C-alpha cells in the first residue's frame, strides 16, 4: 500500500500477519475473489490460495498442465493479479527481494513427467531408492547437475540472489531432499500419493522476474541431459543444508557467478541455441553492470515486475 510521509512516497505491506492467517485472507478477500474469478474466466485453474509467510504476501498455486500452457498461465496470472490490485489502490509485485528484512518472493515450479496421461516420474513396481522411477531420477539428476547454469534463466537479476540465501526457503546449496523446503530441489509427495512414492519435484530457485518460457526450457534441457547420460542422484539432504555447508557446494551467490557457470556449461549452447544464449548472457551482464552502478535501482523493480 502507498503512503505519503513528509511529502515522500513510501510503500508499506498490505498486512504483517503470519503464514496462512485467516484474518489476512479475510481482509484481502474482495481482491482475491476478483483475482480468482478473472483467472477462471481465462480457464486458468487455481488449486490453492492462502496467506504466505512474507509481509503482505499471498501464494496462488495454479493447476499443473504441460510446460507451454503453464508458462502462458503464469504470464496471464501475473497480469491479472497486478491489474486487480491496481484497481483496488494496491501494488502487487513479484520482485524477489524488495525488503531485505523480509522472506522474499519466489515462483516455485513443480515438475513431473507423463506418458499417455500417466505419471512416469513416480516409481511403479520396480525397485527404487527414492520412490521415483529410473526415468524420474535421471531427469531430476540432470537438473541438479546443471542447476548453477540454470540460474541465469530462473533467477535473472542481481536482486534474485538476495533471496537465494540460507533459511529463506529458496535453496542456497547444491542438493536435493525429500520434502526438504530448504533444498533448491524438493522431491514432493503430496496428499493422495502412496506412502514412500515421489510424484514430482519442486524447483525453488525460480522467481517472478524470470521469463517462464526460458526458465522451463533450461530445466527441460538439463533433464534431457540427465536422461541421455542416465545420471543418478546423490543421497538426499534431510536436514538444514546450512548446517551441512562444509560438505555441500554453495549455489552461485551473485548473478555474475551464475552467468560464469552458464558460460562454462556447453549443454545450453546445444539445446537453447547459440544466438539466443549469447543474447541472454549479454542481457544478464548488462543488468549486473546497471545495478552495480545504480545501488537504489532495485527499488524500481516493484513497478517492473
From TrEMBL:
Q: Which SUPFAM superfamilies match?
A: Glutamine synthetase/guanido kinase
Residue ranges annotated for the GS catalytic domain, each copy included: 1-305
Q: Name one Pfam family in it.
A: Gln-synt_C
Q: Does the keyword Transport apply?
A: no
Q: Which UniProt keywords apply?
A: Ligase
Provide a Gene Ontology MF annotation, just one: glutamine synthetase activity
What family does the Swiss-Prot or TrEMBL record give for this protein?
A: Belongs to the glutamine synthetase family.
Put simply, this protein is called GS catalytic domain-containing protein
Origin organism is: Solanum commersonii
Q: What is the lineage of its organism?
A: Eukaryota, Viridiplantae, Streptophyta, Embryophyta, Tracheophyta
